[in-house]
Amino acid sequence: MIPTSETMDPEKTDMSVFEEVESEVRSYxxxxxxxxxxxxxxxxxxxxxxxxxxxxxxxxxxNYGHNESGMQKRxxxxxxxxxxxxxLDMATSSKEEFLSRFQDVILKPxxxxxxxxxxxxTGTNAVESALKLARKVTGRQTVVSFTRGFHGMTLGxxxxxxxxxxxKGAGIPLTGAVSLPYDQYNENIDSLTLLERYxxxxxxxxxxxxxxxxxxxxxxxxxxxxSFEWLKQVEQICRRYDVLLIVDDxxxxxxxxxxxxxxxxxxxxxxxxxxxxxxxxxxxxFAVTLFRPDLDTWAPGEHNGxxxxxxxxxxxxxEALRFWETDAFSREVQRKGDRVKAALQKIADKHPDxxxxxxxxxLMLGMEFPKxxxxxxxxxxxxxxxxxxxxxxxxSEVVKLLPPLIIDDEGLDKGLGILEESIxxxxxxxx
Amino acid sequence: MIPTSETMDPEKTDMSVFEEVESEVRSYxxxxxxxxxxxxxxxxxxxxxxxxxxxxxxxxxxNYGHNESGMQKRxxxxxxxxxxxxxLDMATSSKEEFLSRFQDVILKPxxxxxxxxxxxxTGTNAVESALKLARKVTGRQTVVSFTRGFHGMTLGxxxxxxxxxxxKGAGIPLTGAVSLPYDQYNENIDSLTLLERYxxxxxxxxxxxxxxxxxxxxxxxxxxxxSFEWLKQVEQICRRYDVLLIVDDxxxxxxxxxxxxxxxxxxxxxxxxxxxxxxxxxxxxFAVTLFRPDLDTWAPGEHNGxxxxxxxxxxxxxEALRFWETDAFSREVQRKGDRVKAALQKIADKHPDxxxxxxxxxLMLGMEFPKxxxxxxxxxxxxxxxxxxxxxxxxSEVVKLLPPLIIDDEGLDKGLGILEESIxxxxxxxx
Amino acid sequence: MIPTSETMDPEKTDMSVFEEVESEVRSYxxxxxxxxxxxxxxxxxxxxxxxxxxxxxxxxxxNYGHNESGMQKRxxxxxxxxxxxxxLDMATSSKEEFLSRFQDVILKPxxxxxxxxxxxxTGTNAVESALKLARKVTGRQTVVSFTRGFHGMTLGxxxxxxxxxxxKGAGIPLTGAVSLPYDQYNENIDSLTLLERYxxxxxxxxxxxxxxxxxxxxxxxxxxxxSFEWLKQVEQICRRYDVLLIVDDxxxxxxxxxxxxxxxxxxxxxxxxxxxxxxxxxxxxFAVTLFRPDLDTWAPGEHNGxxxxxxxxxxxxxEALRFWETDAFSREVQRKGDRVKAALQKIADKHPDxxxxxxxxxLMLGMEFPKxxxxxxxxxxxxxxxxxxxxxxxxSEVVKLLPPLIIDDEGLDKGLGILEESIxxxxxxxx
Amino acid sequence: MIPTSETMDPEKTDMSVFEEVESEVRSYxxxxxxxxxxxxxxxxxxxxxxxxxxxxxxxxxxNYGHNESGMQKRxxxxxxxxxxxxxLDMATSSKEEFLSRFQDVILKPxxxxxxxxxxxxTGTNAVESALKLARKVTGRQTVVSFTRGFHGMTLGxxxxxxxxxxxKGAGIPLTGAVSLPYDQYNENIDSLTLLERYxxxxxxxxxxxxxxxxxxxxxxxxxxxxSFEWLKQVEQICRRYDVLLIVDDxxxxxxxxxxxxxxxxxxxxxxxxxxxxxxxxxxxxFAVTLFRPDLDTWAPGEHNGxxxxxxxxxxxxxEALRFWETDAFSREVQRKGDRVKAALQKIADKHPDxxxxxxxxxLMLGMEFPKxxxxxxxxxxxxxxxxxxxxxxxxSEVVKLLPPLIIDDEGLDKGLGILEESIxxxxxxxx
Lengths: 431, 431, 431, 431
What we know:
homotetramer; Aspartate Aminotransferase, domain 2; 2 domains; seven-stranded mixed beta sheet; about 35% helix; about 15% strand; diaminobutyrate-pyruvate transaminase activity (chains A, B, C, D); Diaminobutyrate--2-oxoglutarate transaminase (chains A, B, C, D)
C-alpha cells in the first residue's frame, strides 16, 4: 500500500517531528497516523494508550507476537551479562548455539541438508547473496522471476521484483532478470508451458537462466498462493534444465503458512532458500541464506557486510526455535488459518459485489477488492476501530491478514469483527 | 582481509559447528579462530576466558566500545517495559526521540539541514537509497565512484565499489558507475583535473553523472585519507556541473576521525550522507540516509524494507548522542589519534624496509606493508598475543587500526606494544 | 543453418583460399561448397560452369533476380557518366529521385505518410535507428520482441533477436528487451493476452516498453507467419498503451509476401518500418527506416554513418520501383506463391512422417522437418542437384523457399522437382 | 559537425524533396546545401554545374578520389558480364581474388598474419564483430576505449564512442565500456600510467578488460594523433595484462596517414584491426575485420549479415590494391601531407588569435579554432567558395582536411587558398 496524504488523519496525534525531519519516503506512518509506544503479543498501544489488534505483524516479522516473553528474558539476560553483541562473522557462542539448534530443530527433522550463510541482517541481503551464488555456480546471468513477485529494494533484488513503482525507483535499468507469469496469473496462459518453452527453445530470446526465484505465497504481490502441483512442476522443469530453484521464504516462511518452510507441503526441495523477517522471532534484523552443500563455492569474504553477526538476533532466534520442537505450533497455525479463511469467505459471500476472492494459506490471507481505493479505505476504517492491517497487490487491491501466529481465537474474532464493520463502512464511503 | 586456511590456527578451539554448518563465505572466524562470548569496552573474552584488546571495533561499528553501560541500561529498560521493537516505518516514541535528538545534537549545531531517511538497517541500504535518490532527482544514471572505494555488497553499492574480488562476486556486469582515481592515487595523475575534464568534455565518453560518491577516508580500501583541499575541490566541481555529492560516512563517520561527520574539517556540505556502523552505538543494525530537504522527492514507500523501524537501535542511538553534547569527546579522539599516529610513525621509522607509510585521520589509521602476506601475518601474530586487528587494501597490504574511541591510554599502549612485537615476529616469518 | 564440416563436400572445388585466409565464421560457403562467378535472373553459375537454380535469393535480397537488366543498364550508365557514388547524407540527384519515386509509387498509393531515414546500408542499421528513435520519442527503454524474431547482429538488434547461438555471440548481456511469445508459439499460451497483461499490470515486472518490434513473417526464425488478426490485435494493444509498433520488413517486405509491405493485407499501419535486403533491387547494400512524421524528433546527425549515401543503391532502387507501378507484379507473386505452396503441401502429404507443416505467405515458404539434421540434409542434397536453398529455425529444422519473385513457372517446377528428389534422398540417409 | 538551420543557405537550390520527405536526422546536406550530380578525382559538380574541390573525401571514404578510372572500368566490366553481385558469405571468384591479393599486396609484405572476416559492409559492423570476438576469446566483458574516440552508431560501437550527443541517441545506457584519456588529453594526466594502474590495481573499480580499442589518429574526435611512443606503450601494457589491442583503422587506414595501416610507423601489431571506408576504393560499402589466426574462435555463422558478400566492393577493392604494389603512392601521400601541414602551419602562424593548433598525420589534418562556431563558419565560407570541408571534435572546433590522396598539388594549393580566404572571412563574421 502506498498511502497518500488523503489516507492520513493528521489531527489525531502531533506527528510534526516526523513530518519535518523524516523523509517523504515514510509510508506506514501515514496509514497509521499515531505514535506507538508499547506492544505485547498481538496488541500494540499508542502514546494515548489506545490499544490496537495487530493483523499486520510487522509485515510478517512478528509471527511470535511482540515481545514474546521467552525471548525477552533471554535477551535481557544476554545484555545484562555483557554477551558480545556485534561480531561480524567471527565465531561466537550465541551463533554456535543458533547454528546447532537450527540444524537440530529445523533442518534435520525435515531431511534438509543446507549450509547456512549469514548474508547481512535483512531479506534483501539474503536475496542478493542467493542471486550471486546462483550466478557463480552456473556461470549464467539471467534469473527468472515471476509477475507480482517481491524480493527487496536493493538493485539485485529489485530486478527480480515485479512492482513497477518500486522498480522505477531504481533510476537505472534493472538487468539480469526475466519476469514470467506466476501460477494462475491468467487463465489463458499456461505459465508452466511458457517457462518450459522459454528454457527449451533455442530461439526463445530468453537466455538459459542461472535460477528461478519465487515465493510460494506472494505477500506483497497480493497474497497469491501457488498450487503445490505448480511448485512441483517448476521444480521439475528446473531440474530438467539444470537451473537452480530459489525459494524466497522471507514472508511466507517461519511458520506463516503453517509449516516452518512454506514449501514443505509442496514436497519440493529448493536449491537455495532465503529466510528473514520472523527468523529472529523478536523483530530484530536477521536473515540467512540456505543452500545445498555442493553449491557452497563461496570464497571467504566474497560476500560480506557489517551486521552479519547480530548476536541479539542469534539469541532470540535460538529461543524462537522452541516453537518448532514439536508439531503442535504448526497444527495450531493451520487450525487458525482455516478458521480465519472460513470467516473471510463468509464475509465475502455476503459482499460478492465488493470482494472477488479470498485467498492464501495458513495465516497469510487476503481478500481482493477490485474497486479502486476500497481496500485502502477498509484498512483506514479498521485502523480507526483499533485494528492494524495493510493492503497488498500492485494496485493495493488486496486486504492482507497477517496476524501474529500466537494470536488466540478471541483476538482473531475481535479482529474479524472489526474487519467486517470496516468493510461495510468503507463501502459506503467509496461507493 | 581474506583469510585462507593458511592463516588459521584450527587446533586452538573446537570450531566444528562453524566448519560443518556455516558457509565457506565466512571470513573473520578464520583470522580469529576462537569463539567469543563476552565483551565490554575495548575488550573481548573468548570461551576459554582469554582476553583480547580490540583494535578492530567491529570494523568501525563499536566506536563507543562493547556494551557501553549507558546504552545497555536503556536497552534493558526498553525491553523490560515491552517497548515496541519492530515497527516498519510507523511512528514510535523511540524513533521520535531519535529524530529530535539527532536534529538537536548533531545537525543544528553543525548548521546542517538534512532530511532523515531510514533506508533499512545496514550501510548498503543507505548507499542504495542514496544512489536511487540521486538518479531520481537528476534524471541521470551514471555515478562516479573512486578507486579503492567500498560501499557495500548489494548490486547497486557493489557497482560503486572498487575491489575486483568483491565485484566479481556479482556474477553479472555492474552498471551505472564510473571509477575515477581517488586523491593521491598516483603522482602522475591529477585526479581533480581528470574528474573535471570528464564532466566538461562533451567527447569524454563519460556520461554526465547523477552524483559523485566518496569516503573521506577509505576504510576497506587501505586507510586512504583524502586531503581537505581535494574534498573541497571535488565539492566545487560537483557544484559547477550540478552533480550531487554523496559522502559515504559509514565507516569514517560517527566520530571515527575525530568529528561526528568525517567531512567537517574539510568544510564541505555533501548533498547526501550515508551513516551506519557506529550510528546505533551498540553494534545493532542501523543506518540513515541524510539529504538536503529540496532533494526529498521520494514518493511514499518508493523505497522500503522490513527493518527500517528497529527500535532497539533508535533507543541506543539516542543514548549514544550524549557523547556529542559537548566537544570533549571529539577532542579526546583527536588527542588519541595523534598519540597513536606518532607511535605508529615511530615503529615505521624503525622498520623502513617493512613499512612504507603510516596514514589516516583520528582513530582510523593504517600502516602499509608492501611485502605480500606480511600485513596478514602481523594481524595473525597480534591475535596470538591477544590483539584483534584486521588488514585492508586490495591486497590486504595495510594493517588497520580502529580501536573503540572510548579506549584509554593504557589500552592503546598495550595494543601498540603487541603490535610492535607482532611486526617483528611476522617479519621474521615472512622474510 | 549453421553448416559444419560434415555438411561440406570439399573435394569438388579448390576452396583453399577461403579456408586459409577467411575467418572460421564463414558459413554459407560450407553449405554451398563451390565458387560462384555469374548470375542472372533465378540462376547462378559456378567456376566450373555448373548451373544452379536459386531458391535462396540472397536470403531475400534478390527479389527481382540477379542482375536484373533494367537496373543493370541504369547502373552501368550511372557509373559511366561519373555519377557521384558516395555522398554521405549530402543531397544528390539520384537520392532525390529515389525519395520522390518512393513517395509516389509506394507511400502515397498506400496512404502511408512516412518520413524516410537513411540509417546506413544494412538491415541492422535500420533496426538500430528504429530502436533509438522509439526510445527517444517515448523516453522509455524496454522494447518487446518476439520468440524466434531476427533483427540483426549489432548489439541493439541482437538484443531483440531470439536465437540463443547468435545472442551468445554478443559476449555481454543484451539489455533493454523482453521476449514474448509470437503468434501460434504454443497452443496453451495466448500470446495477445500475455502481451496485454504485461503492459497493463503494474506488478508484471515488465517495464512499460517504448515499442514492440516484429516481423509479420519470421524468416530466420522458421517461416512463421502471424495471422492478420494477431497483427491487428498487437497494433491495437500498442495503441492502447501508447507503445510504438515497429515492423521489421527487411526480409518479408519489398514484395516477398505478395505486397510491397508485408503488413498491407493485415491492414495495420506501423509507426516505424525497417526496409533493406531487396530494397536496392540489385543486391547492393541499402536500407531505410520509415516513420510517422510526428515521430521525427531526430536532431541533425544524431545517428550517422559513412555509407548512408550509397548512390548506386539509389539508382537501382529507383529503377526497381517500376515493378510496383501497377499491381500486376504483386498479383503474379501471389499466384506463384499459391502454386508453390500447393506443391509443397502435396509433397508434405506424401511424407507425413518427415514433414509436419508447410507454412508462410507469398513466396516466403517453409517446410518443417522435425527430425534432427534432416532439413540440412535436404538442402545439401538439393545443392548437389543444382538447387540452392537454406534452412531456418532455431534448430535449422525448416527448409526455406525464397525464390526470386521474377522466377517463371518453369524454374519453379524444376526447383520443386529437385526439392522432392532431395527430400527422398535425404530421408534415406538420415533415417 | 552538427549543422543547424542557421548554417544553411536554403535559397540556392530547391531542396524541398529532402526537406519534406527525408528525416530531420539529415546533416551534411544542411552544411552543403546543394544537389550533387557528378564527381571525378578530387572534384564534384552540383546540378547547376558548379565545381567543388573535395577536402572531405566522404569522411575518408574516397582516398583514391571519385570514380577512379581503373576501378570504374572493372566495375562496368563486372556488371556487364553478369558477375554475381550479392552472395552473402558464399565463395565467389571476386572474393577469392580480393582475399588473395589482399594477402599478397598488404599482409605478407608487412609480415602481418591475419585472418580476414567480412562482418557486414560498414565500419560499425567491423567494430561490433571485433568487440564480440575479443569478449569471446577472453571471456571478459569490459572494453577500454578513449576520450574522443569514434567507432560507430550501433549499440556496441556507440558504447566505445566518446561523443555525448551521439551516445545520448542510444536511449539506453551503454554498457561494457570504460573511457580512458587518450594521448595528450591533458598535460596533468599521464594516460599510460592511468591505464596501467587501472589494469594492475585490484581495487581500481575497472574490471580487467577484454580489449583496448583505439584509433591511431582520431578523425571524428578532432584529428588527435597519438604519438608512436604512446601507441607502443599501450601495446606493451595490453601484452602485459593479456588484453587484446584493437585498432579501428576505418578512417585513418587505407593510406590516409601515409601508410596502408596507420599503425605501421608505430611498429605495433594489433591483435584485431577494423577496416572500412576507403577499403572498397570506390565509395561502395565494404568492411573487414582482421585478427590473429589464433583468435579465430568463431563458430560458423556466429556473426552474420546480409551484405557480407558485396561483390562490387570485392572487385573495386581488389583493383584499389594496385596503389599499394610499390611504396610510391605511400611516399606521395607523405610528401603531400607535409606540404599541406606546412601550409596550414603558415596560416595558423598568421592567425594565432584564431587558430591554436595544426595537427594530424599524412593527409589527415586539422586546425583547431577554439572560438565557438568559428570552425563551422570557416567550412560554410569555404563551401560558398567551392571547397568542401567539414569540422570535427566534440564542439565542432576543428576544421578537418581529408583531401583524396590522389589529389595533385594544384588542387591542394587551390583548396588551401580558399581555406585561407574562408578563415579570414569567417573571422570577420564571428568576431
